[in-house]
Amino acid sequence: MARYDTEVLVVGAGAVGVAVARELCRFRTRVLVADRLNDVGGDASKSNSAIVHTGFDAEPRTLESETVVHANPLFDRLCRDLEIPFIRCGAILVATTEEEEEALPRIMQRAEQNQVFDVEYLTAQRARRLEPALTSARAGLLVPGESIVDPFLLVVAQAENAAQNGVEFLTSCEIERIERSAQTFVVSSTLGEIRARFVVNAAGLRGDVVSHMVGIEDFTVHPRRGQFHVIDRSAPLGIRHIILPVPTKLTKGTLLTPTVHGNWLIGPTAEEMEDRCAHETTADGMEEIVRGAGRLVPGFDPRHVITQYAGLRAVRTPGGYHLRSFARVPGFIELSGIRSTGITASPVVARRALAMLRAAGLETQPDEDFVATRTGIPAFRDLDDVERAALIERDQRYGRIVCRCETVTEAEIVQAVQRTPGARDMDGVKRRVRAGLGRCQGGFCGSRVPRILSELLGVPLERVTRNGLGSELLAGPTRAPGDSP
Ligand SMILES: Cc1cc2nc3c(=O)[nH]c(=O)nc-3n(C[C@H](O)[C@H](O)[C@H](O)COP(=O)(O)OP(=O)(O)OC[C@H]3O[C@@H](n4cnc5c(N)ncnc54)[C@H](O)[C@@H]3O)c2cc1C
Predict the structure, then answer these.
(1) What number is the average pLDDT over the span 286-312?
(2) Which protein residues are within 6 Å of ligand 1, measured from CB?
(3) Which among 245, 278, 328, 390 counts the fewest CB atoms within 10 Å?
(4) Which of 35, 37, 224, 265 to mutate to test the pocket of ligand 1 (most atoms within 8 A of CB)?
(5) How far from 197 is each of 20, 173, 181, 332, CA to CA, in Å?
(6) Per-residue pLDDT at 453
(7) Which domains does the chain show, CATH number per domain?
(8) pLDDT confidence of residue 250
């Protein structure tokens, strides 16, 4: 088995882990990120509502509200530097009953307590002027800073940039045991032994399991599932803002949000679960969110739903964000309880992690060779004819459309695989360049993408997977070449 030596080991390559890695790669520090999954992207980080929150409705004076409020303004620069799709579309919180209308002043007050001062009261008329579909609105609030991001590329782009700046990524690498000897952590993983001076626990839903490995056993984590429907961009919805219901004591309710790629999401549910792999969707969950969407947008038509997914929030007990270091385990940093707002909070959580690492003795010499920017894979579908012709001139594979729904070319898929860290399976390609994410959900490209992966990765077609071992697409050949059909 291999042996790895590093200064900082980050456990988890979700939004939080890669943000930490990207923060650290500005310095002459050796960093290794390990994830049990076969790709970067995390668990919750790839199945959420994709909203960059302002923190207007967060519980005031908590670490979560403070982190979220400070993180939101950082996204313009982060997304510009790393070419991550990001839109400041704003949100409308809609009151549809008298009781909800009465709750609006309280929500505005909470926004002010959280230093979000640009929330605006909307009459029914003005809400409908902004979004004509809100025919049941009695009143509302406009929250201009609420924004949407591509959550897949948020993680992938930071990972690519960190890798470009020297961070090493180990995927399919589950951390199984952590021991401390003298100044070093000796970490056993499925890929071999890792020696590190510092360990950052960014393991999300399994954060308690990783902390227990060093004897910190004062908390547990369980999943709270959130199911979503994805609505095709051809649906006659026309909604441009994030549409939020008035939250109740029990739930934030179903929201309806545009995505940065022109379609919409409705969801999520909030179901307490025990199984940390309970990613399945259910008929009841789907009905619940269609009902919820119908309350916000009367006449909402579920026929335009093209697929479903579910994400698992990491619910910590005791609750709240916990960004901790420990006198009895020097060099171990725990980032836990990052439940419903971690996409947003991740850049500030990463800065806090850096500060804690420094306090624990990490030396941070700025790396003069640090490259702050990353170039995205040019998306053929977003270009005009002249730009498309220039790309095809440069690389003929831009002339071959593989995914017709999302207009994704072979050249884009090749780049998704060849970058570091690159796609290793169908879902990795989908998340990086959208092949298979459109209306037919891979009906056309589902046979071509595996061939490209097989060729580039040098593995037989039968070993190409949807998302890692056990999800192989093909069992084996049914005919030898030359056999008659
Ligand atoms: C339904 C839903 C909606 C949400 N909506 C939003 C939203 O709109 N805006 C927002 O800001 N946030 C939202 N969130 C919250 C956000 O998605 C999470 O807070 C964030 O993704 C957490 O990131 P993470 O890196 O901590 O965790 P994860 O993405 O879960 O990553 C943790 C990683 O650690 C790895 N790991 C675990 N154990 C080990 C081990 N032993 N060895 C190696 N690797 C390990 C896992 O494989 C995983 O990849 C939502 C979450 C859900 C579920």
Answers:
(1) 94
(2) 11-17, 34-37, 42-45, 47-51, 53, 174-175, 202-206, 210, 226, 268, 311-313, 338-344
(3) 328
(4) 35
(5) 16, 19, 10, 9
(6) 97
(7) 1-87+148-219+318-376 (3.50.50.60), 88-147+222-312 (3.30.9.10), 380-463 (1.10.10)
(8) 65
